[in-house]
Every structure is written in structure tokens, then in C-alpha cells.
Amino acid sequence: MNDKIVLEIKNLHKHFGDLEVLKGIDLEVYEGEVISIIGGSGSGKSTMLRCINGLEKRNKGEIIFEGENVKHGQKGFIKLRERIGMVFQHFYLFPHKKIIENITLGPRVVQNISKAEATEQALKLLKKVGLEDKAKVYPAMLSGGQKQRVAIARALAMKPDIMLFDEPTSALDPELVGEVLQVIQQLAKEGMTMLIVTHEMGFAREVSDRVIFVNEGQIAEMGTPEEIFENPKDENLKRFIQSIY
Amino acid sequence: MTVFLEHLTLFYDQMISFFEVALKFAPKFLPAVGLTLQLSVFSIFLGTIFGLLVMLLKLTRLKILEKITDIYISIVRGTPLLLQLYFIFYGLPMLGLKFSGFTSACIGLAFHSGAYISEIFRGALNAVHPGQVEAGKAIGMNRLQIFYYITLPQAVKQAIPALGNQFIIAVKDSSLASVITITETMLIARQFVAATYDPFPILFVAGCYYYLIITLLSFALKIVERRLSVNER
């Protein structure tokens, strides 16, 4: 982690109809930093993540990624997404494509990389997530944990500068959570900048540089894992942590 | 006992004559069956293109195009095919649009099945999980790339069973072309019946031809479906 700011969020607002989901989020993310975002369901943590790569259109505020403030619908906006990897709760692998094709599709179609090069890179990534033997099968053949590891490899194939994880283990059977967290932990060690929305408090504590507690569309508290988990100040956070332990 | 024997002999004679007539007329059906096949192929092929086109127009999300396709679909669904065929063949010439019987039938059948096929495609596209689109966006794909590489292939697979049904209906609907002077299977059957006064074997033969065509079509569709479902195994 160093002091170069990769992502800056300023006064982010988002509402769905009358429902205000985000009420002014401010956050700076430094290169190589791992930030866990915790909070109750409906607190707006997923929406915040989805606003960053524009899966949700923000209503107000700025999102500055590597110095660029690109707005929704503007030219170059789609290009931005290549550099922001995203992993979903429900994986969303492409069911009609083999595992290897799931990973090479982005590089080939979006980045115009040759098939041979994309395949070679994809095999390396599969090895990294421990699934090199699954290259030729379809997603339906994999367990949830394996699917999620492929989804991580697919996002990494675009060589992103930041990775967003939207509850990457929430849809998994308990015994499969570990294998996915291990991969994320490995990425953290390699210095990948990451924002992780998670309910795995033990993991958040171990892997994060900073933890953010989101409550009712605002960052209620932010700090090191020790500060958040050992010495919470916000009343809602205290209650939230008590409800978990 | 003798009554029973009499009945048996009568039945036997009738069976013999049934097969005689059926076998005699079966080959005479062939040119008409050829026409049925041609009509079906045109109707399915043009109808699919029509359907795709209409679906694409809808996807543009332009209000005016959407309105036009909605009107088209509601007209096709709201009126009988028989009337549509009559209208094209007898009605349109009044406006100066004159087509041959065969062209009229092709236009009518394709126009008709196109509406249903476009709805099948639309339903299938909607059935693709929105998360698939998001996953495509997340790796930087644009709308066209997402459509071509992600939603379309999944939608086609979803659409195959319903599409197959529609193709089968198209084959059977081609029989309605008989009312606008096309000598396809149904009309020739009627003509043979009128000539022989022996409807049973002749209609039986006509039915066999339809059944054969549809069975072969179903078989082909099953193969396609199986090919496309490899990723589920």
C-alpha cells in the first residue's frame, strides 16, 4: 500500500424512486489497499460498489478513478470498466461457454488480444485459482466455490487496477467459503487494490487495511480492523458487531 | 354366425379396397406434398427472419418502431390466418397489389408466423438472467458485444422448444393455402375425394404425409436441442 490514490468517491448519492439508498458517501482508496465494507442488509453497501463501475447510475456526486472523472453514458465510460474488475455474489459465469472461454472472452472481444495469448493467460489464471484441470468444462459442472474462483479469474484476465467484490461468498455453502477467501487473500498479498463487501467478519478483520461500516446509506464509521472490531464507537456498529458475535 | 361371417367378409373387402385406393393415390400426392414442403420452408425461413427483424426493431427502444411492431403483432394475433390469406390474395389486388397464389401464401404464412416467432424471441431474451448482462458490462463489453456473445446465444437455446412448436404449426397452417388455389396436400386431397367419393383412404394418406413431415421435423429439432444443451451435462 502506498499513498497514490486510485479511487476517489465524493458525495455519492443514489436513490431508487423515493428510496434514498446512498446519502453522500466520501471515500479515498489508495493503491494496494484492501477495504472491507460491512453493514446490515439494505444499508447500501452493494449499491455503493455497483455505482463505482456504473452498474448503477449515480444521481449525484463524483467518482474519480485514476484521475479520470468519467460520467455515466460518456464516451470512455465503458473503457473504464476494463480496469475495474467485479465479482458478483451469484458468479454470473456465462453458462454457454466453457471455463476457458469465460475467461478469454473479455480479453479477446474487448481488448482484441489473440486467441493464443488470451488462452495462455487464462490458463495461468486458472492455475492461480487452482482450477487448471477445469478449463474445458462448462460452468454447470462446477461447485459454487469453483464457479466463484473462475469468476475471479475472469475479472483478473482484464488486468484490472482495482477489484470489487460484492459479497463473494454469501451464496456459497459454508464448506466452500474458505477456498474463495484464500484466493482473495492471495490477491491481497500480491498488492491488488480491493473493495470487498462481505459478511465474513473474521476474514474482513484479517485481510483488510481498513474497514468501513455503512449504515443507512452513509459511512457511519471507518478505521483499521482493530478500531472497528475491538473498539467501535458508533452505536449502530456496536449493535451490528454484537449481533454477529 | 353367418351374420358375423358376412360382416367379416365385408370388413375384409373394405380393408382391401381401402389399401388399394390409398396405395393408388399415395404417389399422386407427391407434387402436392412438395408444395406443402415448399410453403412450410418459406413460411418457417421467412417467418424467422421476420421475427428476428421485428425483435431487433423492438430492441432499438425507439417509441415509433415499437408502436409499429406492436400493431403488427396485435393484428396477426387478433385475426384468423384464413382471413389474412384471403385478404392478401383477394383484398390487396383491389389496392393494386397483385401477387400469385404461391407468393400470396408465402407472404401470408411468413407474416403470420413472424409475429409469433418475434414474441418467442422476445420472451427468450427476457428469460436470460440480467446478471449475465451485468457480467458482460463488468468486463467492459458494449451493448452490441453483450447481445452477440452473451444474450443471443442463451436466448436462442431458450427459444428452441417454443420455436419448434411454431415451426410445426407453420407446417400445418400451410394447409390453409388450399383456399387460395394452391394445390398443396390438402387441396389435392379434396380434389381426389371429389373425384372418387372415397374420402377415408384419401384423407388418411394426406394425414400420413403431414404426420411424416412433422415427425421428421420434430426429430431434427430434437437433435438441435440436444446439441445446444451440451453445456448442461
3D structure, described in words:
The complex is a heterodimer of chains A (245) and B (233). Helices cover 37% and strands 25% of the residues of chain A. Chain A is globular and about 55 Å long. Chain A is an alpha/beta fold. Chain A is built from 9 helices and 9 strands. In chain A, helix 3 (99-109) packs across helix 4 (115-128), helix 3 packs parallel to helix 5 (144-156) and helix 4 (115-128) packs across helix 5. In chain A, helix 6 links the parallel strand 6 (162-166) and strand 7. With 233 residues, chain B is an all-alpha fold. Chain B is built from 9 helices and no strands. The longest helix of chain B has 31 residues, at 143-173. Chain B is elongated. The chains are: A alpha/beta (245), B mainly alpha (233). The A-B interface holds A 53-55, 78-79, 81-82, 84-86, 88, 90, 92-98, 105-106, 109-111, 138-140, 151, 154-155, 157-158 and B 129, 131-132, 134-135, 137-142, 145, 149-150, 153-154, 157, 230-233.
Structural class of chain B: mainly alpha
* Gross morphology of chain B: elongated
Q: What is the CA-atom radius of gyration of chain B, in angstroms?
A: 23 Å
Mean pLDDT of chain B: 92
Rg of chain A, Cα atoms, Å: 18 Å
Number of helices of chain A: 9
Widest sheet, order of strands of chain A: 5-6-7-3-8-9
Give the helix proportion of chain A (percent range): 25-40%
Q: Would you tell me the structural class of the helices and strands of chain A?
A: alpha/beta
What do the pLDDT scores of chain A average to? 93
Largest sheet of chain A: 6 strands, mixed
Oligomer: heterodimer
Query: For the largest interface in this structure, which chains are involved and how many residues does each contribute?
Result: A-B, 32 and 21 residues
Unreliable parts of chain A: none
* Number of strand elements of chain B: 0
